Amino acid sequence: MGIEVQHIYKSFNNYNALQDVSLKVNDGELIALLGPSGSGKTTLLRIIAGLEVPDLCEESKILFHGKDVAKQRVAERQVGFVFQHYALFKHMSVFENIAFGLKVRPRATRPSKAEIQHRVNELLRLIQLDGFGNRLPSQLSGGQRQRVALARALAIAPKVLLLDEPFGALDAKVRQGLRAWLRRLHEELHMTTILVTHDQEEALEVADKIVVMNQAKIEQVGAPEEVFHRPANEFVMDFLGHVNVFHGRVENGRARLTDIGSKLTWNREAFGNAVYVRPHELEIDRVAGDDGIRGTVRRINLAGTCAKVVVASSSGNEVVAEISFERFHELGLQRGETVFVSAKRARVFTPDYEI
Amino acid sequence: MELTLHVSLGEGSCAKQPMSRKRSYSVLPGFGLTMGYTLTYLSLIVLIPLAALIVRAASMSLEQFWAAAFNPRVMASYRITFGTSLVAALVNSVFGFIVAWSLVRYRFVGRKLLDALIDLPFAIPTAVSGIALTAIYDRNGILGHTLFQWGIKSALSPLGICIALTFISLPFVVRTLQPALEEMDGESEEAAMCLGASRWETFRRVIFPALFPSLLTGFALAFARSLGEYGSVVFISGNLPMKTEITSLLIITKFEQHDHLGATAIAIVMLVASFAILMSINGLQWYLAKKFRG
B14 falls in which pLDDT band (50, 70, 90)? Predict the structure, then answer.
């Protein structure tokens, strides 16, 4: 079922959490709302769930499959919501937790005991926790608890699945496992899913589409590779992965970098006053080229899939470059050596002129 | 000399000395001092006086003890004391719950003032409470007058005792529930609503079970406090033997009649009964807390 929100505003005591946000999620899509804390992503999710009411505005609309649900209460929207801190019912066993949504239905629509039993066992299998039905949440690990929370949300056969930083409280290894599991689960169920996260790696890995949010607004919507390789603006560029920022003046495809005292060249007409280069787009050489930055190797980090070299320019600014191990050994770099850094690719963002 | 030697020894040599190994288990200093103080203090204030009570009772023969502790008048006082205390604790469990709920969950004008008022029964001398309650619930009092017209005796009756006990034990339930209510995470309520539960279902299945252990503690405290209450009750109850005479009053009466052994016998029964009740409620509470919180 597709979801569409139009012109949503939300403020808490003079603080704007959402400002004129519109978003469309296609049926069966897994999208990630990505942004720093305070960007409004969780508020947007809670508004879609009905846990929060948007500010009164005539143009505001929340559509589930084309139908306006703005006036429906949480219980009527049939959303599966998963909280960051699991929010499991502590005094109920895993089985009772999952069965909760079925047991509280009015008598007319409540499934029989046997049906509930069957459905819960099915879900326990799905979350790979068969035989854990009698345990209490406190007897489970964090990752297991979150899987139970997910099963509990799925038990009511929701129309959409909303996940609020579901893996935020888990450690890195468990998080990675669950991420892959969630992706497989989504491919199996094809349920429209919205995932809120501040972890760009998580968003890039799991989602079909990424919505980058910042300061109560949506900055960019696009496929993972799109937002990563063709960021719409400085914020997206900066938020998705590491980036080196050079300040200076850009004219006719040449940038005069005032903070480093050097020049960068690329073949594009552009204006602006900041140049963005990802670490893997930088090259290190022992001899000076046409242009490039002269600097000293300050740190070398070889733990990873490539060599990370931090080069400090004469003015003290640090640049991070990622080069392949082959290249690194070819150069035979040592700390303290003088090198030249040049960019294979760089970006400038033209500021929006408002008249 | 030896101390210096200990310090200069390496790790391996240290391990050979059982003393130094034992000591290294506790990281926090001062265990001996604080534990010794705790035991001495508890002994002086609580255990020794209670033991003296039992020693004193031991000078009685079993028949004497039985006659003093279980004669009809004393039995009636037990029934009244435990009965009215139970009623008061139950009433407070319901209404104290509502008070705590509204104080924690809602923001309204005068909330702070109301919150402070809860402690009044704690703070004012029980005799003052007793006189105040009597003034209102007496046959000539504002409320008592009306109630008497309807045929309800609000003073000089077990009802009067219940009123007094409810008054003095209210803070216990409210004050034990408040932190539990504040601690409750709103997320499990939201989760219940997302799963389609109505407000009543959410309360019944999610909120109440989470608060129940604290409610039980509050109940036990209110009950225990009521069992021992004397000052506020004696004014309003009228102290009619067999009808409205509470056990604490009976103990004092016996004592004043120089029947020290009789007073001791009753005191022993109260001690054992209170202890047994508190232990079982604590046990139940411990079990529930373990089950709920893991």
Answer: very low
Q: How many CB pairs under 8 A join A and B?
A: 76
Q: What is the pLDDT of residue A253?
A: 59
Angle between helices B72-105 and B260-293 (to 10 degrees): 40
Which range, of A163-172, A182-191, B2-11, B243-252, averages the lowest pLDDT? B2-11
Of the residues B188, B194, B205, the best mutation for testing chain A's interface (the one with the most A CB atoms within 10 Å of its CB) is B194
Nearest CB to A75 within list B185, B193, B210:
B193
- What residue ranges do the domains of chain B occupy? 27-58, 64-293
Backbone angles phi, psi at B72, to 5 degrees: -55, -40
Residue of A nearest to B185 (CA): A87
Q: How high is the pLDDT of residue A264?
A: 60
**What is the Cα–Cα distance from A46 to A66, expressed in whole angstroms?**
19
Count CA within 13 A, CB hemisphere, residue A140.
26
SS3 A341: strand
pLDDT value of residue A260: 56
Nearest-Cα distance to chain A for B89, in Å, is 25
Residue B20 has pLDDT above 70, yes or no: no
Q: Tokens 């069965």 belong to which residue?
A: A99
Q: Does A169 touch chain B (CB under 8 A)?
A: no
Q: List, in order of start, the domains of chain A with CATH numbers.
A: 3-239 (3.40.50.300), 244-348 (2.40.50.140)
Q: In this predicted structure, what is the pLDDT of residue A257?
A: 65
Q: Kindly state whether A83 is in contact with chain B, defined as any CB-CB distance less than 8 angstroms.
A: yes
Q: Does A91 touch chain B (CB under 8 A)?
A: yes
| B205 neighbourhood in chain A, CB within 8 Å | 89, 100, 104
> Are B194 and A79 an interchain contact pair (Cβ–Cβ within 8 Å)?
yes
- Asked whether the CA dihedral A92, A96, A98, A104 is positive or negative, the reply is negative
Class of domain B64-293: mainly alpha
Q: What is the pLDDT of residue A242?
A: 86
Asked if A13 is an interface residue toward chain B (Cβ–Cβ < 8 A), one would say no
One DSSP character per residue, A200-221 reads: HHHHHHH-SEEEEEETTEEEEE
